[in-house]
Write a structure and sequence with these properties.
This protein is α/β, with parallel strands linked by helices. 38% of the residues lie in helices and 15% in strands. The chain is built from 12 helices and 8 strands. It has an 8-stranded mixed β-sheet with strand order 1-2-4-3-5-6-7-8, with helices on both faces. It is globular, with a radius of gyration of 17 Å. It comes from Gordonia jacobaea.
């Protein structure tokens, strides 16, 4: 469950003429390091609210809404494919002045972070991947249906679109999410701008952008840990172990029981504990 204490007001950074909503959470005393959090779809950095708030007690935490998501620019002119988002991540890390930050990524945020590292040369201290989109096949049946028929779904009346988005988000979890969490996560996709952006970002996502990443996993230069919900309905747990076999040194896998695809929202305390243990370099349980 997400904490509903608000995150700081977003600062807007322009990268390649695209407006990106960013936030920096500062610890009360000296920082133990820099952490960059990457979200997936159809989410925003909001999924990291609880985890980011906890980690910011000791670390500087950097959040961003990918263009096309959250409070970032959602215009039809914005490119939202994974290749473009990976370039933007590298640009943000440079603009923030970070040197080899810790990176924690969820869903397509994992593909973005890995692509920035493996194809664009961005260096990390380490990376923790949660229920990430990397290996074929990916995308829920609904995701694939929309991707193939976006022109039809775009024409839905607003109330039917809202119901569809909320049901889609709720279906990512193993157990029912609180209504307020579903409402908060769905809010960015409502209204004329949000509705159009929702279908555009789905259409822009393609396995053609993840296959070059999957083919280079053995070249990963940063230590890796993998986390997964045991009952992930969108990407089965078996992919976590397939990823493990492809990375150098066969990184540890953390599996959360009674959790689906939305690990940072469904069990933020367990995610935070796993991340803190990883940063302290304790063995995976």
């Amino acid at each position: 469950m997400m904490t509903h204490d608000p995150l700081p007001t977003a600062s807007i950074i322009t990268v390649d003429e695209t407006s990106i909503a960013t936030r920096i959470l500062e610890p009360p005393t000296a920082s133990a390091g820099d952490i960059v959090l990457c979200h997936g779809t159809p989410w925003s950095s909001q999924v990291w609210t609880s985890v980011a708030t906890d980690l910011s007690r000791d670390y500087r935490v950097f959040l961003w809404d990918m263009p096309g998501y959250g409070e970032s620019e959602k215009s039809a002119a914005v490119t939202t494919d994974l290749a473009a988002q990976a370039v933007r991540l590298g640009s943000l890390i440079e603009l923030w002045g970070l040197q080899r930050p810790h990176v924690i990524a969820h869903d397509i945020g994992g593909a973005v972070a890995l692509r920035a590292h493996l194809l664009n040369g961005v260096e990390y201290a380490d990376v923790f991947l949660w229920d990430v989109v990397t290996l074929d096949p990916w995308g829920s049946p609904f995701f694939r249906l929309v991707a193939e028929n976006a022109h039809v779904f775009e024409q839905l009346p607003a109330h039917l679109h809202a119901a569809l988005v909320k049901e889609y988000i709720a279906a990512a979890a193993f157990r029912p999410l609180p209504d307020e969490d579903v409402e908060a996560l769905a809010s960015q996709w409502l209204g004329p701008v949000g509705q159009a952006a929702f279908y555009r970002q789905i259409t822009a996502l393609s396995a053609a952008d993840t296959r070059p990443v999957a083919n280079r996993l053995e070249a990963t230069r940063s230590p890796v840990r993998i986390g997964w919900g045991r009952d992930d309905p969108w990407i089965p747990l078996g992919q976590a172990y397939e990823l493990q076999s492809r990375f150098p040194d066969h990184p540890g896998v953390v599996v959360l029981d009674d959790v689906g695809h939305l690990t940072p929202v469904e069990d933020p305390s367990a995610v935070t504990a796993a991340v803190r243990a990883w940063l302290a370099r304790q063995p995976a349980p």
